Amino acid sequence: GLSTQPIWRKLWDDVMKTRPPNSENITCWRKKFLETFFSNVLHGVLDVASDWRLNDQHFSPLLHSSPHVSQLTLCNMLQGAVELTAERNQKVLENLAVSLQILKFQHLLSSDQSIRRSLVLLLHRLIHHGSVSQVSMYSWPVPDTVLLVLILSMSAGFWRSGNALTYHSSPCGLCREEDKAQSQASAQPQAERGQCNKREWSDGVDQKGSPRVPREADGELNRCRADVCLNPVFSRPRSPLQNQACEESSSKVPCDHTSVQGGSSPHCISDQLSCHPVLRKTRRRVKSVVGRKRRCLRRSRGPYADPEDLYDFVFTVAREDNLGLLNKNSTTEGENAENWTGSSPESPCTGHTGCKKREGPVGIFSLKAAHRFRSVSTLELFSIPFTGETCRTLSNLLSSWVSLENLVLSYNGLGANIFCILSGLRALSRHPNCHLRVVRVSDVFSHMPCMELVRCILSAFPQLHTLSVSFDLKNQLEGNRPEGNPGCSEAEIPESCLEQLEIRFPREPLHTAFLLPVLKASKSLQQLSLDSATLPCSQELGFLLEALKECTPNLKKLSFHDMNLAEHQKEVLLLLQDPILQEITFSFCRLFESSTTEFLSEIINTVKRNPSLKSLKLPGNRLGNHRLVALADIFSKDSSSSLCQLDVSSNCIKPDGLLEFTKKLEGHIQQRGGQIQFTHLRLFQNWLDQDAETAQEALRRLKAVCSVVNDSWDSSQAFADYISVM
């Protein structure tokens, strides 16, 4: 029953010899130590030989700590991937396949073929045959296109067909076991049904009674298996020969189409092809037209597939598979790649200035030459510039990434390529097994109005729970800025499951009329955040409050950031007395820029009479000492407030003002007999460094009342920085 936390904390000091970041938020020092220990040893930051307790030839630091690692970051030249895929660390990799949940890539550099091969082995083991559910990439100013496509494709569960993945010159053991189990499972029902009579088999059996199937035909059959029986969700229109073959086979032997949701590759009972000469010939003839070149390449490469080819593979295969579709002018399944502005359904990324047209259409990522393995459910891409090519790749992957639940695209320089991403998302939304619930898109420049983008995404994904759209600035070419997609602004939004909506406007005017259709469709909305919007007229905020009251009966949290509300005191008071809202944020909204003392008193009295409000956040509103002291009256004896959290960060508060607030708060608590619900006070970036002794006394007394969160902020340096950028 004794806690070992102090021991692990001391081990951190002895071994790491650094101060852990955010130490106040660490809940388990054992996990924190072992996870950081593993990472430091892997990347050579920690020298094991320097500590006598670790310098033991019978002790493997990586093996010992690997079962406790839930997230891992690979950096620079991917040295960690090379180390983990070495023969001596096979057991370490097996442990990580069970424990690792989050895999991060940061500050990556270009790498050679051998390093990429190690990365392929690592991703295959940790994602396709492991437990990794999240892949995040950070800060890659000049991304290596081949490496980026490799990580994205394998995260989506794709890899080319055949035993291309190997461990030490032999096929992946786990893949072999799955193929063996599949073969046994499919062979047993085939034998029981006895679909093929003796005469049909007689021409293909030798004197010993064994079927005479050439090795080449056997390999061809294995390649066909993944193609014939793909999950219908991912299938594409077939040629007449393919349709005939499928109809004949389905009329005789049922095929078990296995759906893949982040699991293993799709399989079915396709061995009937080998026992039916007509079907076998038909199938091979079709494959020879579509995939002859790819088969020859695969045969000549041996057990290893060259990752250099993956970039061309994504587009070349898709282009080959779509040429026949264009000739047929078929839109049966091709509609899932239909462009949002009505261009060719076979090409989700053509028809926009940001999606340059290629020699052949780049359709949905082809599954005809790739196995589908387990895929991750969360993809995060931060500060990685995307070209038109990589946007098309990501769009193709997204179009069938049904296991994806969370998508974050942050500062990727999408520009007009946002339409390409939207095309892939719309194709994904048409899959009945789509699991996408969270979408976050942020960038420096906006290529289309924020509300238009919100309507585009929400009209395609009414099942979203969280949607965040954030832009810093308007398009650089303001005069030539496109109006976006007219179809999006006119698209009808079905009733949605949206619970959280965040919009950061690039100083765009907030028109309630544009937001109203979104609010009407989002009856389940619980959190709304509006950032950096301008109010076109004095009545606009009032219109917004009326719309919120009418359309969002379940709204619990409302946030305004960097919006000038100095002239909207009436609306501010109406929000504070709302009986439904539990958390209200006015962040850098200039509340007291031109207000009188009466306005502050009205705020205090309104909060005192509202028992439903639990959290009030007022950072960056120039409260100063005297207004902070006045806020203590919210907790007076005659108050019915249930306020638990108060945020007064960045409000020019000095140590003497904080001490006076503390004394007044202690007096109110004493009058109420110690009965108070106030639990959290945030004090970031205030001027508490001007009198350290007074500040320490105020903080010491406050911490006896509630939890206080502050920082060691240098106000003089911050002021100098402010002056330097003026």
Keywords:
leucine-rich repeat, Leucine-rich repeat-containing protein 41, about 725 residues, 19 strands, about 10% strand, LRR_dom_sf, Leucine-rich repeat, LRR (right-handed beta-alpha superhelix), repeat, alpha/beta, single chain, 15-stranded parallel β-sheet, Leu_rpt_41
What does this structure look like?
This protein has 726 residues and is of the alpha/beta class. Among the domains are: 57 residues, no CATH class; 170 residues, Alpha-Beta Horseshoe (Leucine-rich repeat, LRR (right-handed beta-alpha superhelix)), CATH 3.80.10.10. It has 25 helices and 19 strands. The longest helix is centred in the middle third of the chain and has 25 residues.
The coarse overall form would be globular
Roughly what is the average pLDDT, rounded to an integer? 76
- Going by CATH, the homologous superfamily of the domain at 556-725 would be Ribonuclease Inhibitor
**Straight-line N-to-C gap:** 58 Å
Strand order of the main beta sheet, please? 1-2-3-8-9-10-11-12-13-14-15-16-17-18-19
Alpha-beta classification: alpha/beta
Q: Main beta sheet, described? A: 15 strands, parallel
